[in-house]
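ARCHIVE CARD
Drawer: 12
Card no.: 0347
Subject: one protein chain, sequence and derived structure
Cross-reference: see card 0346
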Amino acid sequence: MERRNAWKDYDKKELKELESLCKEYRKFLDNGKTERECVKQIVEQAKEAGYVDLEDIRKSKKKVKKGDKIYAVNMKKSIALFQIGSEPLVNGMNILGAHIDSPRMDVKQNPLYEDTDLAYLDTHYYGGIKKYQWVTLPLAIHGVVAMKNGDVVDVVIGENEKDPVFCVTDLLIHLAGEQMDKKGAKVVEGEQLDILVGSRPVPKEDKEAVKKMVLSVLKKKYKMEEEDFLSAELEIVPAGKARNAGLDESMIIGYGQDDRVCAYTSMAAMFDMEEVKRTACCLLVDKEEIGSVGATGMQSKFFENTVTEIMDAMGDYSELNLKRCLAGSFMLSSDVSAAFDPNFASAFEKKNCAYFGRGVVFNKFTGSRGKSGSNDANAEYIGKLRKIMDDNNIAFQTAELGKVDIGGGGTIAYILSLYDMNVIDSGVAVLNMHAPWEITSKADIYEAFKSYKAFLKDA
């Protein structure tokens, strides 16, 4: 059952649509290297598309009705979009879910130190990374600093060509005999992932003169004292823009495509919808890379509370109606899948893995080894999705995440399945997953967008 490469069937019109979508996607990646930045972009686009803040609806006590477009933001790090359908909400929704956090390094709360005339920021890596991949790269700092007076200062350093960049240093090969004998997990260890931020001392200072110079720059540019690191959220990410990849420009290379490739295509599908029968929802959350925990992760009550508010504004809320709505919903838990890499073929089972250019990927189950921690979609739901894909001429494939005893991974699917709704993992195949620079196929991005639109319309 080998799936056909989608590139072989595109006409000129589709190729033009594909390139337009991917151009806007690259902009989204460039301007959304943190969860906060993603949410900010999405809110701007939602407003342009006619969406209204749920908080404004709640305060005005306005009634929600068919056709209304609503968004809700959770702590500036998660967002839910709704388009109210003609069917009663109690019958359920068609939900696209993805996450907008990505592996990175976070600056610690007491980070700045000087050692032998070099100043560093101490970091703590976030999510699953190969630590050796993050050394010697040009890095940027993105985030916010919350001051005691309530002001919140946005920080982006390293993206403008006039900005400085940062890096984690590495040991030169001439002295690296012992380092090269270590296992990959130990070549660079977590406490070595400190970024170099300065080497110039304040004149006529004897103690921590380089650190003082760094603090003087922070004071001048951001009105920031050293203690303000205590209430800062600063993320260290690769500096630079997403780019077309390959001589044929058939791919995109960029930071954070896990899982912003699914977040963007889900959002774009929502904004491209006209009328819908079942209420359409796009849910984009934080903290998936560390277990979907915390107030902005999928395990929080944000989604459930938001649906409650919408049902209340429609005059339909009861605990029973809420439960019926959630249980009657269909969901695509849209997250990336591992693309087959011929350089590492031994990690894959070739009949059941994802390939570049063959369309959106459905994973019946994820988990690890004996399906541990997996959401395992039922056959009837998969049959329904197959029909939707075929009826809408969408290229799709099915996959597992590597060989049975090698692979493993998780998504937000199992959390939504706790409401008794039908959920399956779907998304885009990625090379270099969790590396600083990940690669996707433009064809798969386009097919994901088409599949999400078809799902919202026909599920």
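Annotation on reverse: The mean pLDDT is 94. The first helix runs from residue 12 to 31.
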